Amino acid sequence: MLEVTGLRVAYGGIQAVRSITFHVNEGETVALIGANGAGKTTTLKAISRMIGIAGGDVHFCGEKIVGIAPHDIIRKGIALVPEGRGVFPRLTVLENLRMGAFLRDDKDGIAADTERMYGYFPRLKERADQLAGTLSGGEQQMLAIARALMSRPKMLLLDEPSMGLAPIMVQKIFEVVRNVAAAGMTILLIEQNAKLALESSQRAYVLESGEITLNGESAALLHDPKVRAAYLGE
Amino acid sequence: MDISLHQLLQQFPQQVVNGLVQGSIYALVALGYTMVYGIMGLINFAHGEVVMIGTLVAITVTGLLAAAGMPVGIAGLCGLVISILSCMAIGWSLERVAYRPLRGSPRLTPLITAIGMSIVLQNLAMILWGRNYMTFPPLLPKVNFEFAGAYFTLVQVVIVLLSALMMSGLVLLVYRTKLGMAMRATAQNPEVASLMGVNINRVISAAFVIGSALAAVAGVMVGSYYEVAHYQMGFVLGLKAFTAAVLGGIGNLVGAMVGGILLGLIEALGAGYIGYFTGDFLGSHYQDIFAFAVLIVVLMFKPSGLFGEKTGDRA
């Protein structure tokens, strides 16, 4: 479904991502793991057109998405949950969800999806009229995921959903991520928490200094001595 | 000569009326500054010139139509509409030509460009309309009212009501429509707003176009209130409206409205009473001092303004 070939990204002469190639099949959850600064977020930003690329190609559903405008990415069916959540702090929770459905015009469908999100995250329903900036970090993460789902995407890109959250909150968030995946969503997951990422995905790629050094079945990588040594603290 | 306190108190309602009228105009112009600042962090110093062009276009169109035999009321209405459309076009082009190419450059660059555009528009107006003062045709019959010791004209009533109407409309637009929601979202986080499918360029254009429409209405108001217009009239008016926006907290819509009205009142009361408090050493022609004193005081003690969020880089 998503095919990234030879993607290169440079920041002012520094190669943040050097020619990486990977793909995500329909219905699959694929994790991209690696240390801080390995180029994970850069890769996601490049796919979602928030930053320009230095070379390579990105295809989504067979269509080249490299040259399109950033605001057209969601039209193609790709929804990004950005690093640091990126909720609109002075919009209410409900307004944030409506922003997720910005390109949709079907009022009934939007209302039904809003209820569906409240089903995933009952906390959001309680706080529907509260400004998003007043939510806790975990609640903001829930909101960011729900907002992305409101566009009815074909694929979800998750950037560090566990970042800065209490373990219990991380469990809750990942439970929903797994439910969404089980319902058929294609997911590209970026995580520093390698154990969590490998446990929640079918396949994974390991990114080191802007290059993919390992890839394979998540279950196998979980037992790979190199991965265990470098990312699972053994 | 000494004026008694009693007389001063008698003047008070009149000064309040004058302040409200002037303040309504400031508020409309201040909204244009604040909307653009809120969304892109730019102070569009050319905004005052858009007001000026709004006035001059209205004079020309109304004059031509009235000369062609149209009743002056209807000619004035056409003048207003064409002035609004022209200003919208100017606001849109301003952003397209002058500011968009500078997106992402250091903050000082678009600011200097804004001052440059202000000079360009002023000179353009000078070439088109000349250097002389022009008289604005009286659009409304001269009817006077009296209420609680204050006298006011039909023009003043219409100015206050029309600005209240425009401001309510704007609030509805920003808080009740999808475009308004996109504008607020873009102001808070443009990068994420574009991830949601919002075309940032369109939102910015909309802010310029709406602000310029309000500026045109304000321009026609100023024209019909003072009945004169001049190619340089936009400069001081723009600075004062900017002051009003800063007073209310730049980037904040309600702030711009309250700041505008408040500045009008401060000016009117200040000008009305300065003579008394300085023993006639300073007269009401020192009116402009108040606006800029307010600007300095706000910037010194509360740079985020009355309704501004914490002093940050952006509202």
Tell me about this structure.
The complex is a heterodimer of chains A (234) and B (315). Chain A has helices at 40-47, 73-76, 93-100, 107-120, 122-126, 137-149, 167-182, 194-199, 218-222, 225-231, and strands at residues 2-11, 14-24, 29-33, 55-60, 63-64, 78-81, 155-159, 186-191, 203-208, 211-217. In chain A, the strands form two sheets. Chain A has a six-stranded mixed β-sheet, sandwiched between helices. Chain A has a four-stranded antiparallel β-sheet with strand order 2-1-4-5, covered by helices on one side. Chain A has a domain at 1-74 and 197-234: Rossmann fold (3-Layer(aba) Sandwich). Chain A is α/β, with parallel strands linked by helices. In chain A, helix 3 (93-100) runs parallel beside helix 6. Chain A contains ten helices and ten strands. The longest helix of chain A is centred in the last third of the chain and has 16 residues, at 167-182. Chain A is globular. Chain B has one domain (5-301): ABC transporter involved in vitamin B12 uptake, BtuC (Orthogonal Bundle), CATH 1.10.3470. In chain B, strand 2 and strand 3 (150-153) form a beta hairpin. Chain B has 315 residues and is mainly alpha-helical. Chain B has a two-stranded antiparallel ribbon. Chain B has helices spanning 5-40, 47-67, 72-99, 108-129, 154-176, 178-188, 190-195, 200-226, 233-248, 253-277, 287-301; strands at residues 134-135, 144-147, 150-153, 228-229. Chain B contains eleven helices and four strands, in the order H-H-H-H-E-E-E-H-H-H-H-E-H-H-H. The longest helix of chain B has 36 residues, at 5-40. The chains are: A alpha/beta (234), B mainly alpha (315). Chains A and B meet through helix 2 and helix 3 of A and helix 6 and helix 7 of B.
Key features of this structure:
heterodimer; A: 234 residues; alpha/beta; Rossmann fold; six-stranded mixed sheet; four-stranded antiparallel sheet; 10 helices; 37% helix; B: 315 residues; mainly alpha; ABC transporter involved in vitamin B12 uptake, BtuC; two-stranded antiparallel ribbon; 11 helices; disordered C terminus
